[in-house]
Amino acid sequence: MQRILERGEIESLDHTTIPRLRLPPADGVFGARAARLRKLAAGEVLGTPVSPELSGYLDLMAELVDAQDAVFESLTDADAELPDQNALDRARQYAMPPLPVTRERPAIWPTIFDRLLTFLVPTAAERPQLVPVLAALHALDKNALNALADDVLAQRTETLDAAQAPFVAAALQVLWTHRASKLLLKDVPVLEAATLCPVCGSHPVASVVRIGGQSQGYRYLHCELCASEWHMVRVKCSYCEKNANIAYQGVDNRSDEEIAASDSDANSAAKPLSNKLNKANDPQKVIRAETCDDCHNYRKIVNQEHDYEVEPLADDLASLTLDVLVTEAGYTRASMNPLLWFSAAE
């Protein structure tokens, strides 16, 4: 006779077949993210064309991510200020994130913010337009900084300065990624809300199909804040969790002649079967928008099977053309990219 498993029994099940959670590595995620941003900015990723205006912004964000990496490397285990064992046990008992963004931030938080701004001084020297932004951030007192951080975490675009927000978000990412990297898998429960990060409770910025080891071929949602990844089955909306009306939208950057030739090849009976199948490293499938006709929201999905170097946040940031097209088709973006903000009027 079948029965419903209790929460404790669910957590005790063997999760090794499909790893339910991928915590950020101890050496951080920022080095690979910066490298990917530069590659995208240089137009070296087939299937993701980048305009000159966006290319300059991606280069700036790569320098910001370099600063994140430097600050991350400067942190110690003590800086993580993880909850004590009793708090971790309570989080597991009630299926709550162990490092919720709604709690008071650790004492190291203002120091991380100051260090990030300091590492950006050379960048500002080469980018005069950045000088007033960093000066305004330097001038914030503790209360103003915390209020700004609260607005960033709540994504209150109506009150935020779009130029300042990426730098505050970047400092928060360093703090939470460092803390998440110090957790053990057993410290993180399975949440009832599968669309929120089980580590910090934030939204995913995008999802990624991973390759290698036990994660081969599985889809993970990538946290916008702490870079943790948690498993969600493919062809399922990461916003409303329905799966009946999911579709995948991509940008086809081929010329009309290339498309016609491809269609001709696909319809040719003389072509070997292997040439008719979807090939690995297909640039049209590196990044796509997963749209849902039930809730009319979308998030992007990147695929390591077609580009090993994909980085969810970086690839999402670089593919604004896809955002524009999907939005024009009537879909709403389910969550923001923390390195790109628009004012409420935009």
UniProtKB/TrEMBL annotation:
Ranges for domain FdhE C-terminal: 280-340
Residue stretches making up the FdhE N-terminal domain: 18-188
Alphabetical list of SUPFAM superfamilies matching this protein: FdhE-like
Keywords carried by this UniProt record: Cytoplasm
A GO BP entry: protein maturation
Keyword Cytoplasm in annotation: yes
Any GO MF annotation of the entry: ferric iron binding
Superkingdom per UniProt: Bacteria
Keyword Kinase belongs to the record: no
Record domain FdhE central: where: 196-234
Listed NCBIfam families: FdhE
Protein name as it appears in the record: FdhE protein
